[in-house]
C-alpha cells in the first residue's frame, strides 16, 4: 500500500489564520531548526495543492536525501529538486510534486501508443504529468516532459477518479504515457493497482530508465510495457538522450523475464542511429536477450525540440531496418509513423497470412481466431480478448 500524503492543516484554517501559522512556523524554526520547520511549512502549502505526496525509494543522507528511483540517483540538499523536476527534498523527506497532477489526459486508440499486441482497435485512457528523467534532443513531447510541474495547468485527478473516467470512456486499459511515467511512479502505482481491481489493463510507455527494485515492485500491476530503446550506442545515449544505455538494457531483460508483455520501439534518427550495423546489432540483442517474438518497431523521427537540423526519417530507411530485423529472426517487426505502410500490419510468422490490417491508428481487418492464425493455427503472442 502506498503511504498517503500528509496534510495536517486544513486549507480553511491556513486561509483564515495566516498570521498564526507564520508565527508558529517561526517558533518551530527556533526550536527544531530549518529542516523540520520547512517541512512543516510545506505541509501547509500542500493544503493548497493535493499534488504533493510522500515519495518512495529514497534514503536520508548527511545534509540531504538520495533518490533511488532511477539510475540518476540524485542527491538532493534541503529544498532541491531532482533532475526530473518533480521530486523535492522538503525538510529531510522526499516528496513527489505530481501525484494526481494530470497535465495531459486523453482517450487514444491503442494503436497510437503504439501497442499492437493488446486488444487491437480498443481505447486506452492515457494520462501523464510533467517531468522526465531523460533529456532527449529530439523529444516530441518536450513541452510536457521538460516542464516544471508548476508551469503547466493541471487538475487534480485522483487515482480513483482516473479509473472511473477510464471506465466511463469505455477504455479497456489505462496507459501511463506521453512524458515519462517513471517520474510519476507513486501516482502510476496506485492508479494501476485500482485499475486492476476494476478489470482494466495497465500499460506503461517508458524509456525504461528505472532502478530494478522499483521496477519489480511495479510489475505485478502492469500488463504491457513499451520501452523506447532509443539506440544501441552508449555514446548516443550520453550525447543525445542524456542517460546511459546499460540501465535500459537491464530494464528490458527484467521485463522479458516477467509475466508482463513487452514491446520495443526504436526511433530512427537520421545519421545518429540508422546505420545497418547498428540496426543489426540491436535486432540481434533483442532476439537473443528478449526473445524473437518480442514486437519491435522502427519509428519515424520528425524534426523537433533541439533537433531541427535533421530531416524526417525516410520511409525507405525504416523499411530497410524492418527487413534487416526480420532477416535476423525477429518475428514481429513494424514500421511506425508511416501511415498505410505494409509494416503496420501483423502477419503470421509461420505461414505469412495477413492477421491484422492497420492504417495509421485504425484497424481495418482482424483475422485472428482466439489468438491464433486462422490459416495455420500458429499461436500469436499477445492479449487478444
Ligand atoms: S527520479 Fe528524479 S529525483 Fe529521482 S533519481 Fe531520477 S531524476 Fe533524480
Strand order of the largest sheet: 8-9-11-12-13-14-15-16
Question: From N to C, what is the helix and strand string?
Answer: HHHEEEEEEEEEHEHEHEHEHHEHEHEEEE
Number of separate strands: 19
Estimate the helix proportion, in percent: 25-40%
Note the total helix count: 11
Bound chemical compounds = iron/sulfur cluster
Radius of gyration: 22 Å
- By CATH reckoning, the class of the domain at 229-344 would read Alpha Beta
Shape: globular
Biggest sheet architecture: 8 strands, mixed
Give the rounded overall mean pLDDT: 89
Instruction: Write out the CATH superfamily name of the domain at 229-344.
Output: Aldolase class I
Measured distance between first and last alpha carbons = 30 Å
Q: What proportion of the residues form beta strands (DSSP E)? A: 15-25%
Give the structural class. Answer: alpha/beta
Question: Which second-level CATH architecture of the domain at 229-344 applies?
Answer: Alpha-Beta Barrel
CATH topology of the domain at 229-344: TIM Barrel
How do the helices and strands line up, and which of them pair or pack?
Blueprint: H1 11-16, H2 18-32, H3 34-45, E1 53-54, E2 58-61, E3 64-67, E4 75-76, E5 87-90, E6 93-96, E7 101-102, E8 104-109, E9 123-128, H4 142-145, E10 155-156, H5 159-168, E11 173-176, H6 185-197, E12 201-206, H7 212-218, E13 224-228, H8 234-241, H9 245-256, E14 261-268, H10 276-290, E15 296-300, H11 315-327, E16 333-336, E17 346-347, E18 354-359, E19 362-366
Parallel strand pairs: 9-11, 11-12, 12-13, 13-14, 14-15, 15-16
Antiparallel strand pairs: 1-6, 2-3, 3-4, 5-6, 7-10, 8-9, 17-18, 18-19
The structure holds iron/sulfur cluster.
The site of iron/sulfur cluster has 12 residues, from loops.
